[in-house]
Predict the structure.
Amino acid sequence: MSRSPFTFTTSDEVNIQTYRWQSEGGNPIKGIVQISHGMAEHILRYDAFCHFLTTHGFVVYGNDHRGHGKSMTAPDDRGYFANEHGFEKVVDDMFRLSSIAKNEHPNVPLFIFGHSMGSFLTRRYIAKYGKKIDGAILSGTGGDQGLLGKAGYQLAKIEKRRIGARTPSPLLDKLVFRNFNKSIEQPRTAFDFLTRDEAVVDAYVADDKCGFIASAGFYADLLYGINFIHTKEQINRIPKNLPIFLIAGDKDPVGNNGKGVRQVYEQYKAHGINHVTLRLYEGARHELLNELNKQEVYDDVLYWLQSAIK
């Protein structure tokens, strides 16, 4: 397998660090998988999963989102999307990468795998560009926060005005993350909710590109996006025949221990989206690809991808 780095430049002139994973065997490519990572992490954390997919005939693309990984070029880029419409710009960055992938591999089905923040971005992507792809996998997503979500967005806008869009916000970080370890007895770290695999948690804590406090502007963008993707108008824009695979741990606080993920599943079904599948993994936490049962998850994703290829 080869992993090739490259960059592309966005319409507002941000350089996005990107990677392509591909088997060197020269075998026919069954499909493209594009990965959209979560907040306060980076795409190279998905390297093992990408390697797995390439051994089964897929080519994989993934980028460090704005304000993350090697797409940061200045200290105040950390955890920051854009001056305006940041959530939309990241979704459009994803579509630009999709266009690159499709151009390099024409007539090959394209699937988006979005984890956590990446799943929220992917849910906007499938409303905006769903007719351009062949399926989506939503990992570690969450449900509609209702009035609480709307209040959080208003607070984030106030905080953004108060301290500046690029300034890290411990207040909003605490608001979003403060309860994530609540159900874990005697957590070792602030990030035990990610996975039961302690080695993965320790590597995350030690990684200077992970676990940072994001900017006030980022939280305003993210909370706007989470509220927006739950509107009926947005859900109605998702192609009714688009295959969607929802996966989460039933001990994942982002998805309210499965309840929020099931809510998304029911919401999609109620809006006539025909090919939605839900799988909750018993005992698993937020990062399914890094969980103790990750091989089971890998195999399930592969089976779903192979089944979705027409």
Observations:
- The first helix runs from residue 47 to 54.
- The first strand starts at residue 2 and ends at 9.
